[in-house]
Specification:
Order of helices and strands: EHEHEHEHEEEEHHHHHHHHHHH
Number of helices: 15
Number of domains: 2
Strand content: 5-15%
Distance between the termini: 70 Å
CATH architecture of the largest domain: Up-down Bundle
Largest sheet: 6 strands, parallel
CATH class of the largest domain: Mainly Alpha
CATH superfamily of the largest domain: Dehydroquinate synthase-like - alpha domain
Number of strands: 8
Shape: globular
Length: 360
């Protein structure tokens, strides 16, 4: 009689790092000291900002921290380069900083989250614009020593403070770009399913659903996202947080970064003057959704309603640069499988794709 081997015990495990506090709303920046004190992040802080965002929000952040007896150091970044990360990291180590706060757009936040990760300090994200989902994620976009774009592991924020009053007053182009970055989740999750089916890649259905939900909310509410409207900032901020949490759950940027991001990174390398990240991935999403046989026109119409670029001309790049970026997109982050496959598109196929989707 054949013996039946017992099934092995269930041994699946998962580790996630999520923000412990998220504050979104009018005058939310006034709560930064209270949040830092409540979370017991320490008594020494480093505020990382550029000269503009230091005036807009950094000075208020430093004041509110001081009111809770937290000593503050300041670092004005020149850019979001590896050298800036090293300088911030050196300050954290030298004065034994417990928490770094990135105050500003993507550059300040990326430098602060990288430096805090390297030095073992906490990180609090205080965005002054909602231009991309990096304000909540554990990845950072940094310029390397040779000028190349790097996507680096970084610190998940222990707290996120998003002041909708400040964000609504920032240039609307930044908020619109944030919408482009959120909408790109729609093709990113499709690429992720492909990688699961064809390459047996780890896939989290919960993270994918959360990311896709944020994107669909932007699509459905696109006509209501308007300049200098605080309700618009509120809506986009919530969607960005959802996308960031999805990445934390997944343990990677997979739920929000796929073929459309590869296109954007390729365009960064090729174009003489690239556009904003969210603008480029928005255009990439239109084309990649066509390749996925999805409703690319709905994405295009939503971006048009918001005022986000949908063509090469609106991005400020040439048709040739855009087509070249499509041809070379598959070479970016090669280990990440997408609809572009391992071979990518021929020049003729790329040009045809761009024309069909009215991008050129």
């Amino acid at each position: 009689m054949a013996t039946i081997e017992p099934e092995p015990p269930f041994s699946k495990s998962k580790s996630m790092e999520l923000p412990r506090s998220v504050v979104i709303g009018h005058d939310a920046i006034q709560q930064v000291g209270e949040v830092a004190a409540r979370l017991k992040v320490g008594r020494r802080a480093l505020v990382v900002a550029d000269p503009t965002t230091m005036k807009i929000a950094g000075e208020t952040v430093a004041q509110k921290l001081a009111e809770h007896k937290i000593r503050v150091e300041e670092y004005l970044i020149p850019d979001s380069s590896l050298s800036a990360v090293r300088e911030a990291e050196a300050i954290i180590r030298k004065v034994d900083v417990d928490v770094a706060l990135g105050v500003g757009g993507g550059r300040s936040i990326d430098v602060a989250k990288c430096a805090s990760f390297n030095a073992g300090a906490h990180f609090i994200s205080v965005p002054t614009a909602a231009s991309h989902d990096g304000v909540v994620s554990s990845r950072a976009s940094i310029t390397g020593d040779a000028g190349e774009k790097l996507s680096l592991a970084a610190q998940t924020p222990v707290a996120v403070i998003m002041d909708t009053k400040i964000i609504a007053e920032s240039p609307f182009r930044l908020l619109a770009a944030g919408c482009g970055d959120i909408v790109s989740n729609l093709t990113a999750v499709r690429d992720w399913v492909l990688a699961r089916n064809l390459r047996n890649e780890y896939h989290s259905s919960y993270a994918a659903a959360l990311s896709e939900m944020a994107a669909k909310l932007v699509l459905e509410n696109a006509p209501n996202i308007k300049p200098r409207l605080e309700e618009s900032a509120w809506f986009v901020c919530k969607a960005l947080v959802s996308a960031g949490v999805a990445m934390s759950i997944a343990g990677s940027s997979r739920p929000a970064s796929g073929s459309e991001h590869k296109f954007s990174h390729a365009l960064d390398r090729i174009a003489k003057k690239p556009a904003l990240h969210g603008e480029q991935v928005g255009v990439g999403t239109i084309m990649m959704m066509y390749l996925h046989n999805g409703d690319w026109e709905a994405i295009r119409n939503a971006l048009l309603a918001i005022g986000t670029p949908t063509t090469a001309r609106a991005l400020g790049v040439t048709d040739e640069e855009l087509i070249e970026a499509l041809v070379h997109a598959h070479e970016i982050n090669k280990e990440r499988y997408t609809i572009l496959g391992d071979e990518g598109l021929t020049y003729e196929a790329a040009e045809r794709l761009a024309r069909i989707t009215k991008v050129i």
